[in-house]
Design a protein that fits this description.
The chain has helices at residues 21-28, 30-33, 42-59, 65-79, 86-93, 105-113, 126-136, 146-149, 156-168, 183-192, 228-239, and strands at 9-12, 117-122, 142-145, 176-180, 196-200, 223-225. The protein is 47% helix and 11% strand. Helix 10 links the parallel strand 4 and strand 5 (196-200). With 240 residues, it is an alpha/beta fold. The protein contains eleven helices and six strands. It is globular and about 55 Å long. Strands 3-2-1-4-5-6 form a six-stranded parallel beta sheet, sandwiched between helices. The protein starts with 8 loop residues before the first strand and ends with a helix.
Length: 240
């Protein structure tokens, strides 16, 4: 039976896994949704965002995330038949550093940092990630962003970059456990690249895929936890 102690490094998705991006999105989109005559469910808002974000990432893969989100905001406004000015769109893009961490993230990461080399593979720009890093509170061993790579997960280029960088760091592929919430952005491409993976199933009490696209078929997962805290506790049990 596989145990977490078999690995020496963890690569993390951040938004959706460690940062509560759905809450950040819903708060940031409120200037639009509050203007509607009919209330949209949270999942309907998140699915609208996912459609527009995924399209923008495919169409302009080298664009920094904060700038890309401004366009996503405008696409959502158009979908809702609402008028917006560009300043409002840019405010949404600039909100990423304010998106909250999940309550368990910082403490669990502090524990895991004692046992693993810790790497970020995130669909974000460097300035936005700095806001998350301040909330998460650990010194990362590697930070690989979409801005660094010039594309967004699930693009193969992002996983090629990850594999190249861990080799540079002296980490064997078999020693890396990719840790993420999103099936679409992370688990499907991670498994296609032969990476072991841990699914942090933050949406375990909900239906649908929220702010991520439907991956079609779910990827196989080596481990599954409902939170990073559960993962840290599992490691502690294995370690003892």
């Amino acid at each position: 039976m596989a145990t977490l102690t078999e690995y020496s490094a963890l690569s993390f998705d951040v938004y959706g896994t460690l940062i509560d991006w759905e809450r950040g999105m819903l708060t940031g989109l409120r200037p639009l949704t509050d203007r509607l005559d009919i209330e949209m469910s949270d999942d309907a808002v998140l699915e609208m965002h996912a459609r527009n974000e995924s399209a923008a990432q495919a169409q302009t893969p080298a664009r920094p995330y904060a700038d890309l989100l401004a366009t996503v905001y405008r696409r959502c406004a158009e979908e809702l038949r609402l008028g917006v000015d560009w300043d409002e769109c840019e405010r949404y893009g600039a909100s990423v550093p304010d998106w909250p961490a999940f309550p368990d993230s910082a403490d669990a990461l502090a524990y895991l940092k004692q046992h693993y080399r810790m790497i970020v593979l995130s669909n974000v720009d460097n300035r936005s990630f700095a806001g998350a890093a301040a909330k998460l509170g650990i010194a990362w061993d590697g930070v690989f962003t979409a801005e660094d790579i010039g594309s967004y997960k699930p693009a193969q280029r992002n996983f090629d970059y990850l594999l190249t960088q861990i080799k540079r760091m002296g980490i064997a592929k078999a020693q890396l456990l990719h840790t993420a919430e999103s099936m679409f952005h992370d688990h499907v491409p991670a498994r296609a690249n032969g990476l072991d993976n841990a699914w942090i199933f933050r949406r375990h009490a909900k239906t649908g895929f929220g702010a991520t696209m439907d991956p079609g078929q779910l990827a196989e997962t080596r481990f599954r936890f409902n939170s990073i805290r559960e993962m840290a506790e599992a490691h502690e049990n294995d370690h003892n």
